[in-house]
Write a structure and sequence with these properties.
mainly alpha, 2 strands, 66% helix, cytoplasm, disordered N terminus, ARM-like, single chain, ARM-type_fold
């Protein structure tokens, strides 16, 4: 295997260990960390040299092969060709499922990758077409792969807990991390000409990069998020395609699999993209909100990405206040029926949306909205009722409610009265009394009128219930009487039949 890795190296009669050591770049033994610089880039921290380095060098010396020289030790005129040769060496992919297999070869490749990362960060000349082709070839060979998992073949079960599921850690990460770092620095490098690079970082490359977001290793998804964001910023020609491809991932997730590991990271990228949308918003962007973002509230696993989804939704509403009506009605459409934890999430998002909503849009949706809030107020789950009552603590929302109290108070007051009479939780009861006082102080006459209507309605409902119970009791009594009569008739008929049967033999005897 060592011959396969260094197959392009030149054969020499012999060389000593000191010569071999001189060709080792000290920077190639750096250890990667997850630190970032002030611009958000991942950065490499110096570490100790690998302890196996001297053994590897001796082994290579004994095999009769000389390592390629360090990129720092050759003239500038030869660096580009040597760079390409080292890229080709890194196209050898090892099997990491067996940690004890090809240990030396893996470490040699890792040192070369580290040297390439160091070189691409300090290069002072533009990358030519050949270099770009080899770079994308090496990246594609190492990164692009499928994720065989039976979970993706079926929909998510009714009960899904991400904390209890053991997520797979990518065994090849020691190499993949360096390749991701290499790709990130290549895309961000000022020496990468976007007009030339778009021929190699094309639609196919971007699509396969997006497929990797389904990785179960969060470290990989974090790198992908940073790289895709840089690609979106640098390659303007790819922007519509990237948005469309992300759309398709969402559609497949919502309507087919309901299982994808990278929805949160993709939404985080979109949050930054939406923030940069120019006004007025294009029809394409509004359709994206209606057809992709709002329906993402439906899947059972919404809690895993709700924070990022809510941020994207709020970005749209803040850019165009008229979209608040669409968003609120969409939330009501997908409002959870049996999941209290999802209801709490929806109420939190609703507060943020309402905070960015103007009076005209609020009036368009306030009737169905407060009917739903009334049901939340009477929820037996105290967190749902409590979160709904917290809306009155928001000054902007409270002002909207008071301005439209003639419509809202008749809807909400009955729910408040039911809470004051029978809710089991003391905190909910206290908040209910506070909200009730807000309505009373805002318009005492309307409050008394609504209270009288509620009491009349309650009396009529009680009367209707009593009539219903009386009717059912009467029907039960009639059914019981009829049953007794039927039993009596059956008993009489049975007795008569027995008498006739007994008399027949006597007549025959005569």
């Amino acid at each position: 295997m060592i011959k396969q890795l260094v197959g392009k190296l030149q054969r020499k009669p012999s060389f000593n260990n000191s010569h071999s050591d001189s060709n080792l770049d000290a920077n190639s033994s750096l250890n990667l960390s997850q630190e970032h610089d002030s611009h958000g880039n991942h950065k490499l921290n110096p570490g100790k040299k690998s302890s196996a380095r001297a053994d590897q060098t001796a082994n290579m010396s004994g095999s009769g092969y000389e390592p390629l020289p360090s990129l720092r030790d050759v003239p500038n005129s030869e660096k580009q060709n040597l760079f390409v040769k080292k890229l080709n060496l890194c196209c050898v992919v090892f099997d990491f499922s067996n940690p004890s297999k090809n240990i030396r070869e893996k470490d040699v490749k890792r040192q070369i990758l580290l040297e390439l990362v160091d070189y691409i960060s300090s290069v002072g000349t533009k990358f030519n077409e050949v270099a770009m082709q080899e770079i994308t070839k090496m990246v594609a060979t190492n990164l692009f792969r499928t994720f065989p998992s039976p979970k993706h073949d079926t929909k998510m079960p009714e009960i899904y807990d991400a904390d209890e599921d053991e997520l797979t850690v990518e065994p090849a990460w020691p190499h993949l991390q360096i390749v991701y770092e290499f790709l990130l620095r290549f895309v961000a490098s000022p020496e990468t000409d976007a007009k030339l690079a778009k021929r190699f970082i094309d639609h196919s490359f971007v699509l396969r990069l997006l497929d990797l977001f389904d990785s179960e290793d969060q470290r990989e998804r974090e790198y992908l998020k940073t790289i895709l964001h840089r690609i979106y910023g640098k390659f303007m020609v790819h922007r519509p395609y990237i948005r469309k491809a992300i759309n398709n991932i969402f559609y497949k997730f919502m309507f087919e699999t309901e299982k994808h590991n990278g929805i949160a990271e993709l939404l985080e990228i979109l949050g930054s993209i939406i923030n940069g949308f120019a006004l007025p918003l294009k029809e394409e962007h509004i359709l994206f909100l209606v057809r992709a973002l709002v329906p993402l509230h439906k899947p059972k696993s919404v809690s895993l990405y709700h924070q990022q989804l809510s941020y994207c939704i709020i970005q749209f509403v803040e850019k165009d206040h008229k979209l608040a009506d669409i968003v609120i009605k969409g939330l009501l459409k997908y409002w959870p029926v049996t999941s209290s934890s999802k209801e709490v999430l929806f109420l939190s998002e609703l507060e943020e949306v309402l905070e960015a909503t103007q009076a005209a849009e609020f009036q368009c949706c306030m009737i169905p909205l407060f009917r739903q809030l009334g049901r939340c107020l009477n929820s037996s789950h105290f967190q749902v009722a409590e979160r709904a009552l917290f809306l009155w603590n928001n000054d902007h929302i409270r002002n909207l409610i008071i301005q439209n109290r003639k419509v809202i108070m008749p809807i909400i007051l009955p729910a408040l009265e039911r809470n004051t009479r029978g809710h089991w939780n003391q905190a909910v009861l206290s908040l209910t009394l506070n909200v009730r006082r807000v309505f009373f102080e805002s318009d005492q006459e309307l409050f008394k009128e609504c209270l009288d209507r509620f009491q009349e309605s309650e009396a009529k409902e009680k009367e209707t219930q009593e009539k219903r119970e009386y009717t059912w009791k009467r029907l039960e009594d009639e059914a019981a009487c009829k049953s007794i009569i039927d039993e009596t008739d059956i008993s009489s008929a049975f007795t008569a039949s027995l008498t006739i049967t007994t008399d027949k033999p006597a007549n025959n005897y005569k």
